[in-house]
Design brief:
- InterPro entries: SwrD-like.
- The structure is a single chain.
- This protein has 93 residues and is an alpha+beta fold.
- The protein has one domain.
- It is 35% helix and 25% strand.
- The chain has helices spanning 44-67, 69-77; strands at residues 2-5, 11-14, 19-24, 28-32, 37-40.
- The strands form two sheets. It has a three-stranded antiparallel β-sheet with strand order 3-4-5, with no helix packed on it. It has a two-stranded antiparallel ribbon with strand order 1-2.
- A hairpin with a 4-residue loop joins strand 4 (28-32) and strand 5 (37-40).
- The longest helix has 24 residues, at 44-67.
- The radius of gyration is 18 Å and the shape is elongated.
- The chain starts with a strand and ends in a 16-residue tail after the last helix.
């Protein structure tokens, strides 16, 4: 999900996989595949950068998971928060 801002300042998350196109007229409008339109403060270039960053993050996580690095990174990030329970790896199952 990417975070965008309505013209009134309210932020919300938008699934970039559902964005069909983004146009500026002069406000930026994101058109979704179902016909929904959102007018946002971010420029077209900012929206494209957010979408690229989102997709790059998915690819990076997929690469880490494929190499077995993702679980190690998750275990390192889990500190004293007992509410976070990491998913067991294949070897642990």
């Amino acid at each position: 999900m990417i975070r965008v801002t309505r013209l009134n300042g309210e932020q919300f998350a938008l699934n970039p996989d559902l964005i069909e196109r983004v146009e500026a007229h002069p406000d930026t409008v994101a058109f979704l595949v179902d016909g929904t339109k959102y007018v946002v403060k971010e420029s077209v270039d900012e929206m494209l950068a957010e979408i690229r960053e989102y997709r790059a993050g998915i690819l990076a996580t997929s690469y880490e998971m494929d190499r077995g690095e993702y679980r190690a990174l998750q275990r390192q990030s889990v500190t004293s928060d007992s509410s976070v329970v990491p998913f067991p790896s294949r070897e642990e199952r």
